[in-house]
Amino acid sequence: MLQNRSIDGQNYSEDTRVLSAIRHIVTDALLPSDGRLPTERDLAAELGAGRRSVRRALDQLEAEGLVWRRQGKGTFIGQPPDPTEELAAKIVSEVDPLTAMEARLCIEPALADLCARRATADDVALLRQLAERTHEAGEAEATEIWDGALHRAIARIAGNRVMLTAFTLIDEVRMGEEWRRKRHRARSPEALAAYDDQHGRIIDAIDARDGAAAADAMRDHLNTLFANLKKSLEKEIR
Length: 238
Prior knowledge:
Elements: E1 6-7, E2 10-11, H1 12-27, H2 40-47, H3 51-63, E3 67-70, E4 74-77, H4 85-91, H5 97-118, H6 121-136, H7 140-158, H8 161-174, H9 177-185, H10 189-207, H11 211-237
Antiparallel strand pairs: 1-2, 3-4
Helix pairs in contact: 1-3, 2-3, 4-8, 5-7, 5-8, 5-10, 5-11, 6-7, 6-10, 7-8, 10-11
């Protein structure tokens, strides 16, 4: 049984209980489609706890890379956008979707390889949860959010800061409204089913700590995305 020791005036058992409860919300993906957590005030009321305990829990989860916070926006599952938005905005008009896919094919298989070498059991569990949310998303916007969160998590777990920045720049370039519309048109029910299967194979290889297999699975996935996007863009031109 936990002892009720005081930490800066807070009850130790309350801090532990709140951390456990919010971790459950995050890791079991008990969140709306935008991945945003309730406010500190709402979490405190829901959990019957003080806001300081909630803030401590969010600080801990942010340090673990499970959530990120943006002033005035809220707290979100996963990793924050990298500070490359300004550079991405400068080059987005010079980059077409297929060029971005070429860049992804260069970067993401290598990230999947490193991810397989460095992932913990908790990391793998998070990837499976994100893949499940992607599968269950239904609406195009929600699918985009959770699919992006999965790929960003793989990049983060890979643990290479330079490659993560390169990945994030590509990701930021891809986030334009027009590009999202084009990707949505390339997502047929058959394509979505294939993507779900490919996500599963990527994560299985990461779980097996097989870097080469993870890289191959990611490459197959991106080549499928590339082919479907190319077909969709060709139909647009006709």
